[in-house]
Amino acid sequence: MREIVRLENLDEIYQAENGEITALEGISFSVYEGELLGIVGPSGCGKSTLLSIVSGLVQPTHGTVWIGGEPVNGVSDKIGYMLQKDSLLEWRSIYRNVLLGLEIRGLVCEETVRYVDHLLTTYGLHDFRDKYPSQLSGGMRQRAALIRTLAVRPDLLLLDEAFSALDYQTRLAVTEDVCRILQQERVTTLMVTHDISEAISMCDRVVVLSARPGRIRQIHTLRFPTGDGQPLSPLERRSHENFKTYFNTIWKELDVHVEDQ
Q: Per-residue pLDDT for the chain (261 aa), expressed as one digit of tens each?
């Protein structure tokens, strides 16, 4: 499997009022083509900082990020970044919102517009293309934001707590949608989440970080059977017996105390 991203011995140290703070220490792992890799860890362990480093928004104190065999030096056009808020522009239609990234990069042409139409049609938003964000449900807005990100065909998609602003029921439905889209479009994805269940239900592998300074405690390869030759959906994974085993293992690695119920 082709390596898309490689992180080599990343350290991130920043200056605070009370001295230097080490946010991340010795982070090394790879992400492979078509893989969805999740990162979980305690609050404040540097998960979002790690995505900022991968995206080129932050220069690490030590270490290197490689994307497609080239070191990251500044913001890369090869990366799509999706945050908690969908950041759709309320005065633009869904179609115009989806085209925004292409417009900024000067990439609007017959081919890219055709791809946008394919995404909107395939993933159930074509009939809503002339609507405005305020007219869509939270789940549909997130789907539109994802299509906007994918329209520029990034080599790597970064998801930073992308579903945390949604209510629980909508969040479950959106993870189903997102997984289906990422699998069908074969998008290599690096996802940060504080939700262990979300990571297990969606990801191929999960990186577990320690409390600050964030170090890799373990990398789990998640193994679930396929249903009719297709990967199990996030909801199907949640009901599979392997899910509880992975959850308990990762929970203990995070050093979270849970009182007996």
A: 799 999 999 999 988 777 788 999 999 999 999 999 999 999 888 899 999 999 989 999 999 999 988 898 888 888 888 877 778 899 999 999 999 989 988 889 999 999 999 999 988 899 999 999 999 988 888 889 889 998 989 989 999 988 887 788 888 888 888 888 888 888 999 999 999 999 999 999 999 999 989 999 999 999 998 767 688 999 999 999 999 999 999 999 986 543 333
Scan for tokens 């549909």, then name that residue.
140
State whether 59 and 107 are in the same domain: no
Tell me: do 43 and 98 sit in the same domain. Answer: no
Shared domain for 1 and 70, answered yes or no, is: yes
Instruction: Round to whole Å and give the CA distance between 135 and 95.
Output: 13
> Do 30 and 216 form a contact (C-beta atoms < 8 A)?
no
Do 86 and 29 share a structural domain?
no
Neighbours of 138 (CB within 10 A): 16
Structural domain of 56: 1-75+158-166+188-261
